[in-house]
Structures are given as structure tokens and as C-alpha cells.
Write a structure and sequence with these properties.
This protein has 451 residues and is mainly α. Among the domains are: 13-144, no CATH class; 365-451, no CATH class. Helices cover 65% and strands 6% of the residues. It has helices at 24-39, 47-62, 74-80, 130-144, 151-174, 178-193, 202-214, 218-230, 239-250, 254-267, 272-284, 290-302, 307-323, 327-347, 353-374, 379-406, 410-426, 432-447; strands spanning 88-94, 97-103, 107-111, 117-122. It has a 4-stranded antiparallel beta sheet. The longest helix has 28 residues, at 379-406. It is elongated. The chain starts with 23 loop residues before the first helix and ends with a helix. 38% of the residues are buried.
Length: 451
Amino acid sequence: MKRILIALAVILSLQVADAQVKSPEAVKKAVEGAEAAAQNPKKNIKPATWIKLAESYMEAYNNPAGAAWVGASKQELQLILAGEQPLSVEVVELNGVPYTKESFATRDYYFNQNGVLEIIKVTKPIYENALAEAVKAYAKANEVDLKQSKTKDINAGLENIARKYLDEGMTSYMLGDLAGASVCFENAVNASATAPLSKVDTTSLYNAGFTAWMVQDYERAKGFFESCIENGYYHEDGDAFAKLADTYGKLGDKEKMVAVLEKGFGLYPQSQSILIGLINYYLENKQNPERLFELIAMAKTNEPDNASLYYVEGNIYNELRQVEKDEAKAEEYLAKAVAAYDACEGVNAEYEYGHIGKGVMFYNIAIELQDKAANELDDKKYMALVEKFEQALMSALAPFEKAYQVSKDNTLRVNIAEYLKNIYYRFSTKGAEYETGYAKYSEIVKTGVAQ
């Protein structure tokens, strides 16, 4: 399964339960009073005045969400809400997962299948811009705090606002509003960057770029990804490089695209997204893909004991094999891929991915041949394809067996067992050893426990 690549390093902040939720009128009156104090020349030179204004806006922001908090159970909320009933209840699906949505006058609650509140979506805020106004108030508090006596309080407030914006972004993301999520993540970045906090929120920075990229707002995405890389935040396996390169490509800047990919490849040679980006670039632009092997050679010089570099080399040859039109050249790439995968064991006998790469390559070749055979009407050609199919499948057997023996990761071994089960099943009529192999790996796949 492909992973969702949004950054989840920061846990959603929890709203503290408060059974004594003020009325919207009372909250609004408090904001108005704080605003009046901020206009008073005798009071607006004091940081406490502006901190009070910021806190009033924060209370106005939190109020419509009610007394509930993310992580609360329905049983807990029945007590906290003191008999308040939802206006409507329905089952909705978010990203393929069912939720129970309870709608109230000012907010929607989304409960997971275990009855735990996962999402709070305010539908009727007291102020549309409460968080932005709170940021302004904290910034003003810092401006007048000449002695810097309130720096700790101001920073705590700004951090809280950044978390709230991050929460809003994740909520919008979950609800499918990716453009809105990107704006929220950007607001989180800006809140953290506000003095005196002055921090770079790389998680929100990446998320702002990722969601902008998903809605094809490439100009905005470019700036966010560039900032990520400038600040040393590359995300999983250097994905920020791959996303920035793709963004440059969409904007027509091929020179920057390949430069970013090569920089990312130097840091993350094992990254499939960067590798595929490089291969596609060289092929689409009819440039010599030998540059890829130059990069690999440089990496090998720097890390001669890194078996994953040979695995990457095998992947490159395998990718080139798949797009090569000339059969002889494709066979040459196949042989080189095998040699690279086999070389992994010589560098590190405990490195399982060389065996896995080789096994998956031959397994996929077998599937391709099987598909061709299914569409072949000529009997002789059909039988020839079936023979090649079985040869490819048999070529996958030994490397998968070796990978299963070498690996110490149970989940990975179970995944390998899935391939082995299928292969042994295909040959189960050829002898008892194949029947035994099929039975063994079927049990492992069934139980999820490698033997």
C-alpha cells in the first residue's frame, strides 16, 4: 500500500475538557472588553493587555467546539454535555473509514468505530479570524514588552495557536478539503515564525507544500518545499526532494528539476521516488541514463560497505529493462540487474533486500508472461509463453527463500511468504517438496507468524 505522505510527527493537540462552557454572548463580550482595553493609551503599553486580548480570542476560538475533546469516548461526553443532543446523526466515510458524525448547532463531532471522538469540526465560529487576531495580539504584546518579562507566556500562546492551526489543517485534510488544509498548515508555519517564538515549523511547512501539490497549486508548493530543504527537513526517504523536483517539472523548469533530484539522490540513494524521477527525466528528455550509474559509483566510493547501493543499482537496471524496446538490450539490463542484486550478499550477508529485489523482479516478469499467454490464441506460442512463465517463476523461488532465511523482520518475512506460497502452489503438482512448501508458507501467511 502507498503511504499517505503527509507529515504526522506532531500529535493533534487535545482540547482540555471544561464542563462550564460560557455562552457565545459572554465570550464575545469578553473580547470586546479586551479590545477596548487595547485601545486605551494607558493600557495598551502593557504586554498584559495584549496577552489578555489574545487569550480572549483563543477562548472565542475554542468555545464553539463545546466541552468535548479529541480522544473522548461517547460515554464521557454524555456526562460532559449534560444532556445536549445532536441535531442529526449519520454515518459517513472518510478515506475509506466509516465514522459516526453527530452535528450540533456550532460543530460536528466524528466518532470512530470504537466510539472515540477523532475529529471536531467547528461549523459556526464566533469570529472567523480568531486565531489570526490572537497572533496579532501576541505579536503586539512582544512589541511593547521592552523588558521581555512576558516572553515565556507569549511563546506558549503562539505555540498553542500553531498547534490549533495544525489541528485545523489535519481536520480539513481528513474531510477532503486539501486546499483549505494547505492554508491552515501555512498559518501554523507563520504563527511559529512570529517573534519572539521565531521557530521554523518544518512539519507544517512540508504539509502545506504537500497539500498544495495535491491540488496542483504548484507555485505555492514550490515555495514550501524549497523552504523545507533550506531548513534541512527532507521527510521520509527524502520525499521533499522528489516532490520539489516534480513541482519544478510541472512548472517547466527541467534544469532545477534534475538538479534537485541529483541532490536528493546523493543523500537518499535508496529512495524509489527520487530514483523513478531521475529515470523518467533521463528517458523523457532522451538523455543518457548512464548519469545514474555515475551517481551510484560516487555513492559507492563514499560508502563501499553499503549493500543498499547495489540494491538501488539493481532497481535502476530493472526499471530500464521495463521501458527498453530492444529485446537484446532488455536482456542485457536483466543480467546486470541480477548481478547487482547478487552483489548485495557479498557486501552484507545479512542484507535481505538484494534477494527480495531479485525475487520480485522475476516474479513480476512471470506475471507479465502469464498475462501475455492468457491473450495468445496460437497454441505453440501459448505453450512457449507458459514455459517462460514457469522459468521466471522458478527463478524467483531461490532468492525469496534466501530472503526469508536472512531476514529477522517478522512482517517482512510474512510478506515474502506470500510470494513463496503462490510459487509453491503453482508447482505443487510437480512433487512432494512443492506441496510441503505450499503448506508451510500458507500457514505462515494465515497466522502472520514466521517460523
